[in-house]
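Contributing new records

If you add data, match the layout below exactly. Sequence lines come first and carry their own label; structure lines follow with theirs. Keep one chain per record. Anything else will be rejected by the validation script.
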Amino acid sequence: MGSRIQVFMVVISIQILVIAAQQPNQDYAALKALMSGMKNTPPSWVSFDPCGDNWEGITCTDSRVTSITLASMNLTGQLSGDLQNLSELQTLDLSYNKGLTGSIPPIGNLKNLSNLILIGCSFSGPIPDTIGSLTQLVFLSLNSNSFTGSIPPSIGNLSKLYWLDLADNKLTGTIPVSNGATPGLDMLVHTKHFHFGINQLSGEIPSQLFSSNMTLIHLLLENNNLTGEIPATLGLVQSLEVVRLDRNSLNGSVPSNLNNLSHVSELYLSNNKLTGPVPNLTGMNSLNYVDMSNNTFDISDVPPWFSTIQSLTTLMMEQTQLQGELPIALFSLPQLQTVILRKNKINGTLDIGSPYSNQLQVDLQDNLIDAFRQRTGYNIELILVNNPICKETTATTEPYCTITQSNSTYSTPENNCLPVKCSSDQISSPNCKCAYPYMGTLFFRSPSFSNLRNTSIYEILHNALLESFQSSLLPVDSVSLRNPTTNLNDYLELRLEVFPSGQDRFNRTAILEIAFVLSNQTFKPPPEFEPFYFIADPSYDFAGEASSATNSHTGIIIGAAAGASVLVLLLLLAGFYAFHQKKRAERANKQNNPFASWDPNKNSGSIPQLKGARCFSFEELKKCTNNFSDANSVGSGGYGKVYRGTLATGQLVAIKRAQQGSMQGGLEFKTEIELLSRVHHKNVVSLVGFCFEQCEQMLVYEFIPNGSLTDSLSGKSGIRLDWVRRLRAALGAARGLQYLHVHADPPIIHRDIKSNNILLDERLNAKVADFGLSKLMGDPEKSHVSTQVKGTMGYLDPEYYMTQQLTEKTDVYSFGVLLLELITGRGPIEKGKYIVREVKRAMDKTKDLYNLHEILDPAIGLATSLKGLEKFVDLAMSCVAESGTDRPTMSEVVKEIENIMQLAGLNPNAESASTSVSYESTSKGFEHPYSNENLFAYSGGFVPPKLEPQ
C-alpha cells in the first residue's frame, strides 16, 4: 500500500513540475496582448517564457521585462493598453516602424520607464497627459509622427528629463508654463534639449519659460506659428549652444541682451517679422552660423561684428535692410565658408582682399555694388547678378554676373580596394563587399558649417559612426555616407548605409542594436553635426530567418509528427491528383493568358518587355491588402478600386484593381503594362508590377502618401502650399511631363494632365500619375496622332477636340490650365466659369501682379512674396494659346519655371520639404491620393469652352 502511495506521489509531483514549467512568465500576458495588436513581431516570440527563451528585442531582469527595443522591425498595427502592465519596463523603443498607427495607450503605470522612444512611426492623436506621471523619464523622443493637440503641461513634472523631442508632428496650442498648481516646461531646469520644430505651435514664447538656473543647450522652435516678441529672458540661459526661432511670425526688436549667450554656435532668426535695429552680436565669440534673413530691420550700415567673430563659418542676412560697403576684413575670417547678403542695399566697391579660404561662396545678388576689385589669386564663388556692375557692358561676361549651380556629390570612397559588381538587390560597401546594408537618412538640425563640398567634414562623421558601432561590439564591417543636401528647413541630410561584417546581411538582433544606437542618441556625432536624428528606410529584408517553430513545446512537436505520419499517404495521393489538375489548368491558361509563359529572367518577343516591374500572384496582393479589406481601400473610380498594401519587403504600394466591366483583353493589358514599365523618372509615379490571374487585372504602383494637388489646393489634405511650394510642384510636374515627351522610349503623350493626376510624395515632390489615357507618339517623323478625343473637362485642348489630332502640345495646354489652377486655387470650371477665360478678363499687365489680386488663392502668401508671379502667368497663358504651334514645348516650359525660381531666389534643383508634416494642418477624413473626385475622363459629349483671342 505504501509503495502505491509513493508511486502516486511521484506521478503527482511530476505533473505539478510539468504544469509549473508550462506557466507563462509574469509579463507574458502583456506581451501576448501587444502581439495581438501588431504584425511582424520577431519569429522568436512563440514560447511561454520571453525571458528564459530569449525573445528578440526583450531584455529581462529577475524574470521581469525591463526593455523592449523593436526599432526597424517593420511592425504594423496599434499598441495594446496592456502595455502598462509591464510595471518593471525601463526602455521602450519602437522607432522606425512606419506601420505603427493609432494613439499611445494609457502608460501612467510604467513608473520605472526612463526611455520612451517612438521616432519615425505613424502614431497620432494627443500625447497622453499621463506621461507626466512617468517621473523616471530621462529620454522622451516622439518626433516624426502625427501627434496632434497641445504639449501636455504635465511634462513639467519630469524633473529627471534630459532629452525632450516632440518635433515634426502636428502639435498646436501654446507652449505650457507653470501656473500655481499647474506644471509647465519652465520647471524642466535640468533638461538639455527642447526640440519642438516643425509643428503648428502658436501664441507667444512665454518669458517665464527661461531662467538663469536652466541648463538648456538646444532650443529648437523653428517652423511653427509663434508670434509676439522674443522674450528678453532668453538671454539669461547662459548654457545655450543652438537657438532656432526661424520660420515663425515673431515680431518686435531682438532683445539687446541676446549677445550674453556667449556659448551659442548656431543662431537662426530668419523668416520672421522682426523689426528694430539689426541685433548686435558682439561678444558671441562661439558663433559659427548666423541666419537673420527675411526680416524688416531698420535700415542700417553693415555692423562691425561682421568682421570680429573669428569662429564664423556662415553669415546669412538676405533682405535685412543693410547698406554701405562690406569691410575687407570680413572675407579674411579664418573659418568663413558662406556669405549670403542678397536683396540689401550694399553699395560701393567690393574688395574681398585675400580670403583665408579658397572655398568661399559669396552671394550678393540684388544689391547696389558698382565696382569689384579683383586681386591676384582670387578663387571664390561670387555672384553679383542684378548689381549695377553687371549691367555695364564691360562686365556682363564676367563669371560673377551669371548664376551657376554647384552641388555636392559626395560618397564615401572605397577603402583601397577594387569595386565589385553586385547583384541588383545588393550594394557594394566601402570595403568592396556585396551585402544588404541597413539604410536610412541622417538629419542634422543645425550644422555649424555650410560648405557641403568640403569632403573632410564627412570623413570626420564617417569615422565617428564607424567607431561608435564597432566600440559597441556590433557586427559592422563599414559605413557609407552619400548625397549631402540641405532641405527647406535648413537641415543637412545624409544617406547612411551600414554594412554587415562576416555575412551578407544582418540578423534581427544586429538591426535592433544598430537602430538603438541611433534612436537613443548613443552615437554622439562630432560637435559640428549636433543635434541629429535618424529615420530608417521602411524595412529590412531578414531573408533566410530561422523558423520560429523551433521554440514549440516538445509534446506538441511529437503529437504533430504522429499526426503527420498518419496523413502522409493521403497527402501523397492528393498531391499526385493536384499536380495533374494543375497541369491541365496551366495548359488552358496559356491559351488565354499572354503572361502564362513569362519568365522574369528571360526576354522574348512573346512575353511582356518589362523594365523594373514584376508579376505578382493574386494571393500575394490579397495578403498584402488583408484580403482587399475596406479598411485598405483608398479610392475608387470607373476603372475599379484602389487599395493600400504593404509588400513582403515592407514597401507601401497602391493596387489598382479593375472591376469586371472595365477590364481589357489580355493583349491590351499586356501592352499597357509594357508602356508603364518603361517610365522611370523621379517626377513620374512608378509601376511596381501587375497581376493577371484568376480573372483579375491589377496594376501595382508606388504609394504616394500626400495625395494630389487637388487635395492640397482644396484644403482637403491639410497640406499648406505657399508660393514656393507651388513653384516646386509646377517644376516637378513639368519635368515629369518633359520626360514623357522627350526622354521616354518611345515618347508618350499623357492626354490627361490635371491637378488630380499630380501627386505629392512625403517631401512634397510632384509626380505625374495615371496613364490610363496615354498614347505613344509612335513614328518620330509623324507630327500628330489621329485618335478618338479623350481627356478631362476643363483641361481639354480645344484644338485637339476640333481636329481630333493629338500632339504633345495637347498636354502643354492641359499643363497651362494646371498652372492657372495653382495660382488661383480654383478648379478649371467652377460655377460655369472657365479659369482660362476668367484670368484673361482680369489681366492687366500695366498693374501690379497683372491686376489678379481678386482671383489669386489667398493661401498662396503675401503679395510681396510672389516673386516671378507675372512671368508665371505669362507662361501659363502661352501654354493655353489657341494654336498648338504657338505653345511652348515642355522643355521650354521647364526652363522658364527654372528661371522664375531663380528670380525668386530659389534653387530649382533643391529638394522639396524634408517632410510633408511641415505643411500640414488638421484635416479630417483625408484618405488620398486615390479619391473619387476628378476621376471622370472625357470620351465624348462635352464641348470645351471656346478660346477667345489673346
